[in-house]
Amino acid sequence: MKCSSLEEVRENIDRIDDSIIRLIAERAEYVRQAALFKKDEDGVKAPDRVKAVLQKVREKAEKYGAPADIAETVYRNMIAGFIGMELDNFKNNKR
Q1: Rg of the chain on CA atoms, in Å
Q2: CB 63: neighbour CB atoms within 10 A?
Q3: 38 contacts 90 by C-beta, under 8 angstroms
Q4: Contact criterion met (CB below 8 Å) for 71 and 53
Q5: How confident is the model at residue 4 (pLDDT cuts 50, 70, 90)?
Q6: 5-50 pLDDT tens trace
Q7: Number of other residues whose CB lies within 10 A of the CB of residue 90
Q8: Residue 95 in this model has a pLDDT that exceeds 80
Q9: 49-58 contact pairs (CB < 8 A, 24+)
């Protein structure tokens, strides 16, 4: 979609950001649930799963024409945050 003003560009970015945040909230709920199925902290950290997710992210970024390096960086940060959240949930549920 070609925009005719900076305001229109910003409106579209805001609309997309709203969708992204909603999806992050949805993802967070599944991460909370995942902690219930993990047996130990190594299962929470799951380095092989992280590696597989990052590989899929790069592939999807290329498929959709997104900058793969940026997508990977965003996901690395998001995953690190979610692992921290999941570790907290895991520890709290194991008490």
Answers
A1: 17
A2: 9
A3: yes
A4: no
A5: very high
A6: 999 999 999 999 999 999 999 999 998 888 888 889 999 999 999 9
A7: 21
A8: no
A9: 50/79, 50/83, 53/79, 54/79
**Distance between CA 61 and CA 53 in Å, rounded?**
12
Two tokens, residue 87 = 């570790």
Position of tokens 């965003």?
A: 74
Crossing angle of the two packed helices 47-64 and 68-93, in degrees rounded to 10: 150
User: How would you class 72 by CB atoms within 10 Å of its CB: exposed for 0-12, middle for 13-18, buried for 19 or more?
Assistant: middle
Q: In this structure, what token pair is assigned to residue 22? A: 């909603």
Which amino acid belongs to residue 66? A
